[in-house]
Write a structure and sequence with these properties.
By secondary structure, this protein is an alpha/beta fold. The chain has an 8-stranded mixed β-sheet with strand order 3-4-2-1-5-6-8-7. Helix 6 (140-151) runs parallel beside helix 7 and helix 10 (272-291) packs across helix 16. The protein binds flavin-adenine dinucleotide. Flavin-adenine dinucleotide binds next to helix 9, strand 11, helix 12, strand 21 and strand 25.
Length: 594
């Protein structure tokens, strides 16, 4: 189908006037075509002095768009060329999936959903302000079901503009679904205004999306990857955020990891963990590209994965290494965020309309209307305490999967001259991992080229529980011998002569090894939230979890399908199951986790 003239549709949606004085505007477009309508709305948003702080554009498409087609479609419109280039850069290698593309420093969020229209509509959890509806060229009954699914994404007053004139049957269905004609012009504008009362109690998320929490103030506990990414996501939306941490610096916990891998999880059945890691990495890569220095703080080096104990290998091109603390610092440096060090939160209590955070001496450290627990496994003690102080939260908090800390050790050392030829040029991952050629931070100019290697990491279970650091180094060397025998031989002397250095940290994990994200208190406007349990994949999950949390708080489109997001729900558990027994020795920070 030919892509309709974009301006007509823009006027049909009543834009830009309709979004003036609003904090966010949410557009749902049932056919992205080659992106021309999106580019047009984005351009209009950019040039409007009274634009909303955030523009959300959710667009559906049966097949991934081609980069060339996007550029070609924009070719007749010189004012759209630069934007089309920017968009096209983010559209390489898209698959059937949700793709969250962050543009204009994160203030224009395109969620490009590729797949079957009806399925994609059912996976949405937001109420659109404007809808652009292209009735599909399919059987009448299919159109009718699509319309029903579309209606679920409307609030009273949502304007729906259609690209072509409707058939009498389509008009009748629109009326049946609760729409009435608002304007009859080159494109027909319909307004969602059913004569019946709208019941939103069946879907709490949708109900919250109609009346979202306006941006106010929030305290985030924890200044690691989880907390800093939440703070950045909220600050971008106009929130005033204080980030409290027990440490003297940012990234004082597991996120002080000197360097970590960002590599997709792969499974034969493409399970939720694989899908989540893929979506998350796309979003993390965007953040790294825009905030960090490539080659120094991170690199999209690609990662070679050895599977089945070296039997087969898999090359991940959309993968690489990152220094987590640099990313944390870049997030926390954003406007609207205040970092408070040496603040050990011992209790969280409700006082009237606000939550007050106390230290162990009972002194108030901070207060805010909203609190986000992003303090890893430290959240468990605070929530157990809160459950006693606020029994009404008990039934909900009892559904939070148990959070557990699991220690791990990374072995590392300075790279010696001449060693480069025996060490891999890119990270290798499998049973353990080896990351080489990582430039060290804070070196003097003469040592600017100093590089380090990192081998690891252990997962403190089985015989490693409470084991001395030397046992962890030995375990790392043993894994390296299987993963990369030549590299193990080259680095062996460093282990033997005690030159190997230690980094250790504690991961926060849940029984199903997936993060916990979302509200902790029930009701239409929750005030207590959590983003934690990043396990061994904080670099892959933190941004995705932060964007999901911010979307849920603000009634915005979610960055991933609702059915997939459910696997992350903070209240997903019905019982505090014990952690499953982890097989000894078969665990690494790369791929093989239970
Ligand atoms: C050995 C090892 C190797 C790893 N390798 C990788 C890898 O290659 N790739 C990858 O993606 N991930 C890796 N990880 C995991 C990654 O480090 C974590 O997933 C990530 O850092 C978790 O971030 P976070 O913000 O949730 O937790 P943290 O970084 O631990 O942050 C929690 C913060 O909360 C603070 N805090 C806790 N309690 C309180 C309180 N009561 N009051 C105030 N502050 C409090 C802590 O001081 C801490 O700073 C590895 C982890 C380990 C241990």
């Amino acid at each position: 189908m030919r892509e309709p003239v974009p301006h007509t549709l823009l006027q049909g949606c009543g834009l830009p006037q309709a979004w003036r004085d609003k904090s966010a505007w949410r557009v749902l477009d049932t056919d992205f075509h080659q992106g021309l309508r999106f580019l047009n709305i984005w351009q209009t948003w950019r040039s409007d002095a009274k634009r909303p702080r955030l523009l959300h554009y959710v667009a559906l498409r049966e097949h991934p768009p081609s980069v060339d087609a996007i550029l070609q479609a924009a070719a007749p419109y010189p004012e759209l060329h630069a934007l089309a280039q920017e968009l096209a850069q983010e559209c390489h290698g898209l698959a059937v999936d949700f793709h969250r593309i962050s543009l204009n420093e994160g203030r224009v969020l395109l969620t490009l959903c590729v797949g079957d229209t009806q399925t994609l509509l059912r996976e949405q959890q937001f109420a659109a302000d404007s809808v652009v509806w292209d009735p599909p060229e399919s059987a009448a009954e299919a159109i009718r079901w699509t319309l029903k699914a579309l209606t679920r994404c409307c609030r009273r007053g949502t304007l729906v503009v259609t690209a072509q004139a409707q058939s009498p049957a389509q008009s009748a269905w629109l009326v049946q679904c609760g729409f009435r004609v608002a304007i009859n012009g080159p494109s027909t504008q319909w307004s969602y205004d059913p004569s019946w009362e709208l019941k939103t109690t069946r879907n709490l998320e949708l109900a919250r999306s109609i009346l979202p929490s306006p941006a106010s103030d929030c305290v985030v506990i924890g200044a690691g990857l989880a907390g800093a990414s939440v703070a950045a996501a909220l600050a971008k939306r106009g929130w005033h955020v204080q980030v409290l941490d027990a440490g003297a610096t940012t990234a004082a916990g597991a996120s002080s990891l000197p360097v970590g891998l960002m590599v997709p999880h792969v499974s034969a059945d493409d399970n939720p963990r694989s899908q989540l890691s893929r979506s998350g990495i796309r979003m993390s890569l965007q953040q790294a590209k825009s905030l960090m220095k490539s080659g120094q703080d991170w690199a999209m080096s690609g990662v070679l994965e050895h599977r089945e104990l070296g039997v087969s290998t898999l090359w991940h091109s959309q993968a690489g290494w990152i220094k987590p603390a640099q990313l944390v610092n870049a997030w926390l440096a954003q406007a609207g965020i205040r970092f408070v060090p040496n603040a050990v939160v011992a209790a969280v209590r409700r006082e009237g309309d606000v939550w007050v955070l106390h230290n162990a001496a009972g002194q108030a450290l901070a207060q805010a209307s909203h609190v986000v627990f992003a303090n890893g496994w430290g959240a468990q003690a605070l929530l157990d305490d809160l459950q006693i102080a606020a029994p009404e939260l008990g039934p909900n908090l009892a559904r939070l999967p148990a959070l557990q800390g699991i220690r791990g050790v990374l072995s590392w050392g300075m790279q010696q001259p001449g060693q480069a030829s025996t060490l891999p040029a890119f990270p290798v991952n499998g049973l353990g991992s080896l990351i080489c050629n990582i430039p060290l931070d804070g070196e003097t100019e003469s040592a600017a080229q100093a590089q380090a290697w990192y081998a690891g990491a252990t997962y403190e279970t089985g015989t490693l529980v409470n084991a001395p650091v030397s046992a962890h180094h030995q375990a790392n060397l043993d894994k390296l011998r299987t993963l990369l025998p030549a590299a193990a031989q080259a680095l062996g002397p460093a282990f033997a002569t005690g030159q190997v250095q230690t980094w250790q940290g504690t991961r926060c994990v849940t029984p199903d090894r997936l993060p916990v994200v979302g509200p902790l208190d029930a009701g239409a406007s929750p005030r207590l939230w959590i983003s934690a349990a990043m396990g061994s994949r904080g670099l892959s999950y933190a941004v995705l979890c932060a964007e999901l949390l911010a979307a849920q708080m603000g009634g915005e489109p979610w960055p991933l399908p609702a059915s997939l997001a459910r696997h992350l729900s903070a209240l997903r558990s019905n019982d505090r199951a014990r952690l499953p027994t982890v097989k000894q020795g078969g665990i690494s920070d790369g791929i093989i986790h239970p």
